[in-house]
Amino acid sequence: MQKNKLGQIWEVISRNQIIIPFAALLLLALFNLIADPSFFRITLNENANGDPVLSGNLISIIDSGSELAILAIGMTLVTAASGGQDISVGAAIAISGSVLLRVLCGSDSRSETLQAPIIVAFLIACVVSMLFGAFNGALVAYFKIQPMVATLILFTAGRSVAAWINNNELPIVKDPSFSYFGNYIPGIPVPAPFLIAIACFVITWLVLKFTTLGLYVQSVGINEKTSRLNGLNPEFIKLLTYVLLGLCVAVAALIKVSRISTINYSVVAKDIEMDAILAVALGGNALSGGKFNMAASVLGAYVIQFLTTTLYKFEVNATALPAYKAVVVILLVVLSAPTVREKLTALGKKLRRNDLPAEKT
Amino acid sequence: MREDSVLELRGIYKSFPGVKALQNVDFTLRKGEIHALMGENGAGKSTLIKVLTGVHIKDEGNIWIKGHERPVQIHSPQEAQKLGISTVYQEISLCPNLSVAENIYIARGDSRFVNWKTMNTKAQALLDSLGIAVKATQQLASCSIAVQQMVAIARAVDMECSVLILDEPTSSLDESEVAKLFKLMRKLRGQGVGIIFVTHFLDQVYEVCDRITVLRDGTLVGEYEIGSLPRVQLVSKMLGKELDDMADIKESAPTYSDKGGTPVYEGIGLCSSEGIAPFNFRIRKGEVNGFTGLLGSGRSECVRTIFGADKVTGGAVSMDGRPVKITCPREAMKNGIAYLPEDRKRDGIVGDLSVKDNIILALQVKQGFFKPISKAKAVEYANEYIDLLDIKTASVNTPIGSLSGGNQQKVILARWLLTHPKYLILDEPTRGIDVGTKVDIQKLVLKLASQGMSITFISSETDEMLRTCSRLLVMRDRKLVGELTGDQLTQTAVMNTIAGGEKHAEE
Ligand SMILES: Nc1ncnc2c1ncn2[C@@H]1O[C@H](COP(=O)(O)OP(=O)(O)OP(=O)(O)O)[C@@H](O)[C@H]1O
Ligand SMILES: [Mg+2]
Fold first, then answer.
1. What angle do CA B37, B42, B48 make, to 5 degrees?
2. Is the CB of B430 within 6 Å of ligand 1?
């Protein structure tokens, strides 16, 4: 009887997608708990400006994982609709960040005052970023180019474009209010990037709840022909997902440049595209498109950050870091693959059946 | 194991989450027989076959195969193939991107053909010998479903096998192709191959089969010699009750008159990129009409043009007398037209989505992006149609892909009924649907028509159309060649009009 229940629970659990990133998170937490419980310590300090701020490993995880989590939102949509991934998001962040600085600093890269309100700069960056998204999306949707290949163009050229926007200069924003977005808002001890990320999730959640985006995106990703016969415009929906990813890129770029109030074209958000794709995979979403689970992707992003922070904590050599990460990631991704999940479900069934009486051999 | 049987299944159990698909099912296939496997939609026929071919692993039970001392364990289709079991699945499972020849020989695990030229000639010879009119080098995706189906059959029969399984192979074939298939089946039977044949066409069962096994709701009803089980009894064994009489259907069918005011839909000089000759078409309120003709005669292309599913290249359309523009499905839907496509797997289902989402999809698109149907409402709609059409599904959240073929079809039908269209186009709505439900669907069509819906009904089964339609448009060689109404609506008249060009062809 006992075993029967267990099997049932196992079956339900192993069928739910979010369980994979969740289990990974627990595993990492457990590992840290055993290795060094002080990992979880959170303290309230004062920063240089005399504002109260929380600090600790957990805080650093939710802080530095924010850009990734925001990108994971857009990447999930792109993956679901087009069955492929956008590998240009890192380069696009460089472009978007560069635009932001260009508008804020005007022609004088060392200007003492803001040349334009931050909101205006941000909106312009959003528009530019969405246009680049539309460019990628158009290649994928209308020219039917493989997403990886289509976005390779921007991946290759993006960082030079970013440098070109500011004539290869590195503008520095002196106004302290610009640094709030990537650090702390005075008086709020929680890192601002995390708050921005939460705002993004809430908006995404509302959009998915109060529009039919989710249904349309999944439907197009699963069966384009059927979608068309049901009155959808598959090309437009694919394009739309790339534009939305562009929007996510702009937000991530705002955080990235705000963190240091300037930009380094060649290293800003380097390799972030791979982590964003991993986050989607870790969330148990098929990289070939179709059904998606947004919460699982976002959780996946934080798991990746958790992993990175843990590895840093254990002073893994910076050059060896990717190798360690790769091993863990392979493990997690394999575990979250649908076929493996199916096997696990079957295992649960077996567990259950073992207690059925009168089994023939 | 009996001396003359090639295959025995004993006490097979298989369940899926929420469904007991097979419970204690026995099945015996003798050497050199054609054995019909019958049952309603969702009775478990395909599941039994998939257990036998290793697609699904059985929960319990034994499979005995001739020549093996002990029960065999089949874990994959490859293993089944090695054991001499060759299969044509219900849903065509070939690679659309490959050529016909490649589909026949590749992924078979033998490397007999390294030479592409030999492979193509071999394949061509095989196709010719089976009378399949297709070039071996043609890409499979560019072939009609019927041809794809025949290719799947060719692939299966070309393998050395002692057991051949055909799961609804005839649902997309027309009579002449069915005849070819039957000839082939009889030949193989003569060679001692045991054939399992699943179909919903009773005529076909009585034409070729030797014995019948009936399943109902996953359990075995019985095994019968064909001679000892008359048709009426077979049906009641399948349904577990007597079949409603079909005879009363026609009485309620409205007779067609051309004087009913302005047509709901009228198209003049319609043509599409699929190469049909421009045609005129109109339908009145409450009218049921149909396109008939041989496979490939262009009947599906006509309705696709009406719905804007193919690229519309010309023609003027008016609805209720007002000129409208319909060049894509969205515009058609806005004007109250609904279209149930012929190819369910390719054009109909959204495989991984739930039954509920599949049902509300079209209505949702019609309502618009900012008006999502609430979960509660969606469940309510889904349940309404699950009851109405008697859809067998574990829950509204089950992915449609895991439903039985016939039940998937009903879900797609539900999707379009839910949009409450003015004009409903049904292209082969009864394909893969069991006998009981077929009658229900025909009745439903007539009921909807009596409530004022206009319906175009296409079916490969002429008597189904004669029973429901008050006007038939006959297609031949992608041209509209005739129109039959009233007294002309007889089997022979339809056949004659369809075959009008046959003398031509025989020359
Ligand atoms: N992969 C699966 N996952 C879950 N349920 C399944 C799966 N395959 C089949 N089923 C369920 O098992 C039952 C039997 O299905 P099956 O496909 O064997 O029916 P069938 O007799 O072939 O019907 P049809 O005539 O419509 O093809 C159905 O209720 C179906 O929903
Ligand atoms: Mg079936």
1. 45
2. no
